[in-house]
Design goal:
There is one protein chain. α3 links the parallel β2 (about 35-40) and β3 (about 60-65). By secondary structure, this protein is α/β, with parallel strands linked by helices. It folds into three domains: about 5-135, Rossmann fold, CATH 3.40.50; about 140-200, Helicase, Ruva Protein, domain 3 (Orthogonal Bundle); about 205-330, Zinc Finger, Delta Prime, domain 3 (Up-down Bundle), CATH 1.20.272.10. It has 18 helices and five strands.
């Protein structure tokens, strides 16, 4: 049976490819007792070799799965380049290509990894002895085509504006997109998914509304800011929720400015901001450029003062929110 290396940043497609391969190996109940799964961090070559050479028990196929070996070998390679004691960490894996080329016809060996380059020892070992299948996360037109195609697989169609908004809001996170499409398909109940459905149901669309408001506040377009606020309220966003969204966005901008000063990576910024949306990070970065950290802290303090005034009954929540937005977006007066 063949050996496969499934690797890349698109873990959702990797999972689906793996499921397709394993389904083709035979009955699931037979495969359960003939499957070995290894984490490469603690895996020895001899252990992998024994698993691959074993005969299937009460079945026709064996499945051996190894996660992260390419990453481990790459790290070992880098460490050895900086040391004088030779490639000890990689020595036991030197005959990996021989193991792959000599697999019994009853064994399928699947390596699953993240992004690997062509020089990776695992890539070299599988090339010519098995199948290399790389999965890059789709972007742009390719991502939009994926969304439309996935919707068709779920038995519905999706309007182009809805596709474009989903693509922008969620980005190339296919697992999350698939989940959102499930929700949208159920909600549409037989009709096409429209732009309004995405705006109503996808959490990131709420962020888009608050971004419009914060954009107007940041650029001191008071009339536009008040209009954006009223639109949020008309769409059914309760004033306390709008206050919370504004406070959250101010905190995110402070966090992003601090992380940018530390030269944090894109993945670190996403994790710290608690989002997987490149749209959210991009918009927050753009908005943060309009402020200093001190000015953001002052806005946050004023928002807390308004919140206290609302809760103490000094002003009602609609008026308090309007006061904050009007103050924060007022044009700077020349002195």
């Amino acid at each position: 049976m063949p050996c496969y290396l499934l690797y890349g940043e698109d873990d959702f497609s990797i999972r689906e490819e793996f499921q397709g391969i394993s389904t083709g190996l035979g009955r699931a109940e037979e495969l359960i007792t003939n499957t070995n799964t290894f984490d490469a961090d603690n895996l020895r070559f001899g252990e992998l070799s024994l698993a691959c050479q074993a005969m299937p028990f009460l079945g026709s196929s064996r499945l051996v799965i190894v996660h992260g070996l390419g990453k481990r070998l790459a790290m070992g390679n880098r460490r050895n380049q900086k040391s004088d004691d030779g490639p000890k960490a990689l020595k036991e894996w030197a005959t990996l290509s021989d193991l792959i080329s000599g697999l019994p016809p009853t064994t399928a060996l699947i390596f699953i990894d993240a992004v690997l380059d062509a020089r990776n020892p695992l890539v070299k070992a599988v090339r010519g002895n098995g199948e290399l299948r790389a999965f890059a996360a789709p972007k742009g037109a390719e991502l939009e085509a994926w969304i439309a195609g996935r919707a068709r697989e779920k038995g519905t169609t999706i309007a182009l504006p809805a596709v474009q908004l989903l693509s922008e809001l969620v980005g190339p996170h296919l697992r999350l997109l698939d989940s959102e499409l499930d929700k949208l398909t159920t909600y549409a109940s037989g009709r096409a998914v429209e732009l309004g459905d995405v705006e109503d149901l996808v959490p990131e669309a709420k962020d888009a509304g608050i971004f419009d408001l914060v954009d107007a506040v940041a650029t001191r377009r008071q009339a536009q800011a008040m209009s954006s606020l009223h639109r949020l309220l008309i769409q059914g966003t309760p004033p306390p929720v709008a206050m919370t969204m504004l406070a959250r966005q101010l905190r995110l901008m402070v966090q992003l400015k601090v992380l940018a000063d530390r030269e944090a990576s894109a993945s670190e910024i996403m994790e710290a901001l608690g989002t997987r949306s490149e749209f959210v990070v991009r918009k927050t970065r753009q908005q943060a450029q309009n402020y200093t950290i001190d000015s953001l802290k002052q806005l946050y303090k004023r928002l807390l003062e308004i919140d206290v005034a609302i809760k103490s009954g000094e002003v009602n929540e609609d008026l308090g929110l309007e006061i904050f937005v009007a103050e924060a977006s007022a044009p700077v007066r020349a002195t």
